[in-house]
Amino acid sequence: MTVYDINLEAEQQAREHQGRLTKPPGALGKLEDFACWLAARQGKAIPEQLKPHICVFAGDHGVVDEGVSAYPSVVTGEMVKNFARGGAAINVLARQCNAGLSVVDAGVISDISDVEGVVHAKVRAGSANLAREAAMTGEEEKCALNLGRKQARQAIASGANLLIAGDMGIGNTTASACLICELAHADAQDVVGHGTGVDAEGRVRKVATVQQALKRVGNIPAHDVLRELGGLEIAAMAGFYLQSAEQGVPVIVDGFIAAAAALAARAYEPKVADWMLASHVSHEKGHRIALEALGLEPLINFNMRLGEGSGAALIVPLLQSAVALHREMATFESAGVSGKDG
Question: Is the pTM for the entire model greater than 0.90?
Answer without folding.
Answer: yes
